[in-house]
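Morning. Coffee machine broken again, so started the prediction first thing and wrote up yesterday's gels while waiting. Chain of 331 residues, entered below exactly as on the submission form.
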Amino acid sequence: MSDTFKAIMVTRDEARNQSVTVKTLTEDDLMDGDVTVAVEATTVNYKDGLAITGASPVVRRWPMIPGIDFAGTVLSSDHADWKPGDRVILNGWGVGETHYGAYAGRARVSGDWLIALPDAFTAQQAMAIGTAGYTAMLSILALERAGVTPDAGPAIVTGANGGVGTVAISVLSRLGYHVIASTGRTGESAFLSSLGASEIIDRAELSEPGRPLGAERWACGVDSAGSHTLANVLAQTMRGGTIAACGLAQGMDLPATVAPFILRGVSLLGIDSVMAPRPLRETAWARLATDLDPQKLQSLSRTIGFDDIIPTAEAILNGQIRGRVVVDMTG
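Came back before lunch.
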């Protein structure tokens, strides 16, 4: 195995202008940690797109290697839970934001941030899920903890063509939900139907300012958009319904009123995938291994190489990417 490896590095000058370069590093260049991993696969999430382009202040330490997800094999470990040869996954924990991330051949991290790669998945399959799919499952687990079941009524999934949306549709439909998919790319209706969506609506129905309360349309949902979309989702949630909020693709604001909460008893559940404790992560990944159809996983993902990461990060912010993107780091 080579002593050097390629890495994508984002830097910022004194005028706060951001630049992105590819560098050759050694393990001596990595940050502190008690486990070193050979990165075999990663992915490009919406947050990674923000980090690479600088469109939002995701990166909080400079310079930084972006990439919030990886799967690979432990090379060395001073952590009691891990030994060389172990197959592991990392999602979040500030990796790619405050700690060198996945867009490099090696990563040195805290062993507390890792979980075992489920036997059901290869490294590439795990990254076809990635933080987006893991977040979708955290959202579904939260709905289940709140007592939501398929017989309560339809489930709305916003950002349906994105990473969270495609996995949420796949899992919810397999669990027996009638899934309503909201997307800005209605030309992808056949793809969304193949994942399990029963209805497809144009996101324009939800993305503009709306009424405090609207007609009751769904009993539960997974929202990755925020802003007016989430406000309208809440306003059209059935009495006693529950929505899990896990993203901000449209915006961080929430221009809503208390009407859905106090007049219909609607609940809003916040989903934090970055700092979720290990037991919850392990539960989410175990459920993904049983509740995500492998054939659907293959259909909603495509594979790129290291050299394609930067243009893909730009494309994901422009809404040009559907489903999940896997980065094969072994080539």
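The two ends are 13 Å apart (CA to CA). Going to sketch it on the whiteboard this afternoon.
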